[in-house]
Amino acid sequence: MTRYAAPGTEGAIVSYQSRYDHFIGGEYVPPARGQYFENPSPVNGQPFTEVARGTAEDVERALDAAHAAAPAWGRTSASARSDVLLRIADRMEANLEKLAVAESWENGKPVRETLAADIPLAIDHFRYFAGAIRSQEGSLSELDDDTVAYHFHEPLGVVAQIIPWNFPILMATWKLAPALAAGNAVVIKPAEQTPASIHYWMSLVSDLLPPGVVNIVNGFGVEAGKPLASSPRVAKVAFTGETTTGRLIMQYASENIKPVTLELGGKSPNIFFDDVWAKDDDFRDKALEGFTMFALNQGEVCTCPSRALVQQGHYDEFMAAAVARTEQIKPGNPLDTETMIGAQASNDQLEKILSYLDIGRQEGAKVLTGGERIRYDGELAGGYYVQPTIFQGDNRMRIFQEEIFGPVVSVTSFADFDDAMKIANDTLYGLGAGVWTRDISTAYRAGRTIQAGRVWTNCYHQYPAHAAFGGYKQSGIGRETHKMMLDHYQQTKNLLVSYSPKKLGLF
Amino acid sequence: MDDMNGIGDMDGIDDTTDGLRHGDGTGHDDGTGARGDDVVPRVAVTPAAAGLLRRLRADHGPLMFHQSGGCCDGSAPMCYPAGEFRTGGSDVLLAELDVEGVAETVPFWMSRSQYAAWSHTRLIVDVVEGRGSGFSLEAPEGVRFLIRSRLVGT
């Protein structure tokens, strides 16, 4: 095991600056109104840096820089942009451990996850879009002997990206990599809970990017996010978050007739058919791990498998094993590589989770394990910790219908295939789902019946590049982590060309 | 932050007895049974939340709530200047909150589809320390509105 020292303390492999300004036009620029806000680590609740509190003036300055940079960046060759992304990936790989510790300290997530997932995935997504843009081709349509329609991809220009706090660097990468590959300049607003780790990332890669191609404006949604999302100077807005803000961003975009991509969460069902229990083998073990994935990233994942549907035939045996497996989850200091569940990202997030533990009990759900806040003494005192919690109840309870965004799974049983599909689709959302069975026909039919954009089949919580990710129903618009995301950052230019010297003859 | 624990003092809750109204503003009963015999408020406000609303009203003018769903900062109420968020036929007006010291009522909205899952609970708007994202007005003050819930009939 390894216990990393907290950033900025003796023996630490990485340090944060004591203050971060906005990154605009390739340099750090103080906020126009001179205000900053404190940034606490959820590990202990203590501020470790302060960050510029951006306003409309700062957003305009960033948009000026982005508009100055966009034309030249958009004209660079695909190979040149690809090369920039590959160099960014290489630089991140060389600093993987530092990025992982910085991310863990700011978000509260266990460093074993940032070392194994967040940062390696971010590196790979940059490489993927570096390759995708090299291989992208336009098209032509030969309409007749003399007439050809050419279709070119052109960048949108300047795009706005609003990043969530649950995977600050990885979610920024999901949006930055395709936007940059496609030739856009970006103004990015990190979440106010996690405004700093992207600046550590930028300190590693800023020399690789032309000034103004990536601009970072920090601040609060109402003060910085709104002027960015509502600006007529952005060609597109990308947002990951919740439904009300998603609707508000669509409303702003409608005023300017701009496209949006939205990822707004889910209440993902994780379905375990009876035949999972047919043998005590690797697959059963894998399925139990799949159940326990609700605790990944403290449950702060849009696709958290927060509803488990377990078939009645082996329900008791399965749940006894699932509870035992959940109770093996090791909580503690996120900077310890043995720790499996760390801190919730903010105090209000902690309070919201606790409010759902309360309403779940009021509704009559049974707590099979967990159900309480964890309070530590010593170095973790003041941090935001919750026990991995399993509720057993009914799908119409609010804990089955609303995204808690914590390490909480709500379990119910089902009778047969149709019952499972009915419960699975009885939700406002359709982002993720899991299906576990040894029968390929059942797996296929379930995957096609579930109204969700991503159905993990005999696996869960894998996020490889080149597999499309996005939502059905109220979970959003667009597909990330796949080359089709390039289309969301490009215009189509059609040149309709006549090679005939002859007139049409109408006039 | 002394008043952050106001939730424990249920007697101090500012309440409303308004029933539900359709998003089209017609004000007629939507059939959820909340109108008329609903003596317990559908949406209430803790003293701490009322205090925050008074401060926000002074800074931003008339206010509104829309309850969010979904990931990240979802499942929490968003507070906007009145009219900033456009409601429509897909929304339900749960209450017009009467907050002491605020000249006009504060409408509390939720999407109709989400309300289908929430209708058996009544909501208490509270406030906690924290740093929510989203575009809610109170976030820069280092606090966040939060919903606490009680089952209807309790």
From TrEMBL, chain A:
EC class of the enzyme, as a word: oxidoreductase
Record bears the keyword Oxidoreductase: yes
Residue span(s) of domain Aldehyde dehydrogenase: 32-494
Pfam families per UniProt: Aldedh
Reactions catalysed: an aldehyde + NAD(+) + H2O = a carboxylate + NADH + 2 H(+)
Source species, domain of life: Bacteria
Keyword annotations of the record: Oxidoreductase
Residues forming the catalytic site: E263
Record PROSITE patterns: ALDEHYDE_DEHYDR_CYS, ALDEHYDE_DEHYDR_GLU
UniProt-listed Enzyme Commission number(s): 1.2.1.3
MF-aspect GO terms: aldehyde dehydrogenase (NAD+) activity
Signal peptide, first to last residue: none
Family annotation (InterPro entries): Ald_DH/histidinol_DH, Ald_DH_C, Ald_DH_CS_CYS, Ald_DH_CS_GLU, Ald_DH_N, Aldehyde_DH_dom
Family: Belongs to the aldehyde dehydrogenase family.
Protein name per the record: aldehyde dehydrogenase (NAD(+))
TrEMBL record, chain B:
InterPro entries for this protein: DUF779
Compositionally skewed regions (Basic and acidic residues) per UniProt: 18-38
Alphabetized Pfam families for the sequence: DUF779
Compositionally biased intervals (Low complexity): 1-10
Stretches for region Disordered: 1-38
Protein name (Swiss-Prot/TrEMBL): UDP-glucose 4-epimerase
Taxonomic classification: Bacteria, Bacillati, Actinomycetota, Actinomycetes, Kitasatosporales
